[in-house]
Amino acid sequence: LQAVVAAPLFHALYGHKWDEVILPIQMLSVCMAVRIVCVTSGALVLAQGRFGFMFRVSAIYAIGFLGAVYIGALWRNIVAVTLAEGSFFVIFDNANMYLALRYGKGKLVDVFRLYSIPATGAGVAAIAAAGSPAILGAHHEQPVIRLALEAIVMFCVYIIFVRAFAPQKFAEFGSLLKTIRAGKVSPAQAGSR
């Protein structure tokens, strides 16, 4: 969603004076989606009791991240830095997830299965949202209208996609919302579940 609505959001807030940051924001948004899926690898490694491995991975990560930023900075261009940093995240985080899953007899294909429903759903929703102003005839000059339209379309398409292809997760989310509405749990408490 961030990648799709970055342009209309920046145009609504700042006009066109921040256009140079839109592409890096979009690129980092996509990379962060990968990071969110792979962030559980650290918890898996710690649950496996592999503290030494986690320490080594963290040290390599720190050095690799700084190296990626340095390589990108050689071009003196924010897009090059973003591309180098994003590439590092995508490669390193997926490798780390693979190593965490491999310890429990997981395979490389299991890493890709983690992305199947969320990535496909987000991609379909993003394409629908990006095309919605043209399809619905919304004014491209009105960034607030475009932003609202794209966010609503993306949310609706993603919910429909999840309901169709991940009904168990959709039911869990529905149960959680009912619990919040009934006042048994606050939204902050529900977020920690």
What does this structure look like?
There is one protein chain. The chain has helices at residues 2-14, 22-38, 40-47, 51-73, 78-103, 108-136, 143-165, 167-181, 187-191. By secondary structure, the chain is mostly helical. Helix 1 (2-14) packs antiparallel against helix 7, helix 2 packs parallel to helix 5 and helix 4 (51-73) runs antiparallel to helix 5 (78-103).
Topology:
Elements: H1 2-14, H2 22-38, H3 40-47, H4 51-73, H5 78-103, H6 108-136, H7 143-165, H8 167-181, H9 187-191
List the total number of helices: 9
Low-confidence runs of at least 5 consecutive residues? none
- Total strands: the figure is 0
Distance, first to last CA: 23 Å
State the share of residues found in helices, binned by percent. over 70%
Radius of gyration: 20 Å
Strand content: under 5%
Helix/strand class: mainly alpha
Mean pLDDT, all residues: 83
Q: Key terms for this structure?
A:
mainly alpha, globular, 9 helices, single chain
What's the short story on this structure?
The chain has helices at residues 2-14, 22-38, 40-47, 51-73, 78-103, 108-136, 143-165, 167-181, 187-191. With 193 residues, it is mainly α. Helix 6 (108-136) packs across helix 7.
